[in-house]
Design a protein that fits this description.
alpha+beta, D-Maltodextrin-Binding Protein, domain 2, Aspartate Aminotransferase, domain 1, 4-stranded mixed β-sheet, 20 helices, about 15% strand, elongated
Amino acid sequence: MNDGLVRPLNDLVDKHGANIPDNLKITIDGNIMAIAFMANSQHLFSRTDILAQAGIDSVPGTYDEVIAAAKAIREAGMMEYPIVMDMKAGWNVGESFNLAFLAHGGEFFKAGSAEPTVNSEAGVAALETMKALVEYAHPDHLTQASNETQALWEAGEAALGIMWGSRGAAILDDEGSSEEVISNTVLSAAPSVEAGGVPGATLWWDGLTISTNVSDAEAEASFAALAGALTADMVAANNDDAVWLLDGFKPGAAAAGVAATAKGGAAPYPMLPQIGLLHNALGAELSDFLQGNESAEKALADVEAAYTTAAKEAGLTPKVVMPVDLFGQPANYPVLSAIAKENEMIVVADAAQSFGGALHGKRVGVLADYTTTSFFPAKPLGCYGDGGAILTDDMDKAEILKSIRIHGQGSDKYDNVRLGVNSRLDSFQAAVLIEKLSIFQSELEARDRIARRYCANLGGHVVVPNLIVGGFSSWAQYTVKVKERDRVVLALKERGIPTGVYYPQPLHTQKPYKVAPLSNGGLAVSEKLSREVLSLPMSSYLDEETQDWIVASVKVALGAW
């Protein structure tokens, strides 16, 4: 969402960054976009003298302990509002929610998607935690950000604070506050929900970037000056001013809170394209709840609604559902289409293996908004080379597809009205397909008959395919599941029977897709199937004698050990 605001630093790092360790180079898609040099996090600040006077002999570690300590301080008549928090309406409110939400084990989005999940048990618990804290916060807390909370602390008007670690050095120096405040301020880990639990915080790095709207000369001069200053000598001279990520740093009192929070397992702020939109929605929609004007559930519903609207405007919500029909039978298009319609999406079917199949009496090709298929020789309807088609009943979109197929052609071949490709089926392949179409139905019926014979004779020995209710398969493959598949494959090979495995390696385990998000449990079913599936010979022209030999050989292979 901030694409184009900062420039890649690769060339500047090559020229001026010899002293910068690789782990500080923030790299996105191969480009160094920033240099990190400081760590930051929110954590707990405590006045140990005030805690002691209220009868509390240790620094709080959980939210309940923080709230109990604040209550004790109030009841002792020492401070009416002992807690300070960065709760200014907008970004700070959103971040305060994030802290408590993560501490309660919340997940911002459904795994692998941009669908928000803050309206949840963890979300409600986070809001209740925030509400309990602000009961003891200054009445103007919704106007207070870091500068205001630091000022209140240095003025001695707070005893407990959830503030940024970067404020620690300024609070503990000998400027802006009294010796009483400075000497009794202790920085510790952010509070957790349970003792020893995950701290309610997000980990951040601070660093340098160079904007795109400065000249190359200015960019180089700025980078050279900044990078040249990232030395051990600079750290030694300013050791207590920050939590440095540079050689020579010796953690002191000002770094204790960030270090303890990181050690406690706090999560980094989510580096997701959509997190900014959700953060903004949280900041805009939670104030009414904090002021007692609506329930937690209503506030979180408002957050998700505001986020969804913003995500749609930003193009972050799904636009297309793309089911892939496997082994010849169609996916459950009625269910998928209903979900797509409800979410304003279109359905594009990958019917490379299912062309000729049907569901509830409707042929593949009319079950989705668009259907793509393949005429590769191994497919149910194959030509003698490469070929394919897209089917739709939307004539306006069909005209656009035809245009894209021929270089983006408009009214004539020299009028290109859009970007296109050269994707025309050649005449020879078209001629082959025309002839094969005339016998296609009889081939489908033969495949179905052969598949049924396989099922009848192999059921109970292997796991045979199950057809979707109301479905007709084109049986691109006849695929079973077997234990110790590799031994079965070898035994069949020794008897001259070819087999196939579709597919031996799931996509998510392959190099280009390893960066893609997975559900919390991974893709265990895909991984298991990749070890068990086995495709037996399938053809419209497989005679019964040969099929009987294959079936007998499978049974022998299964019983050969």
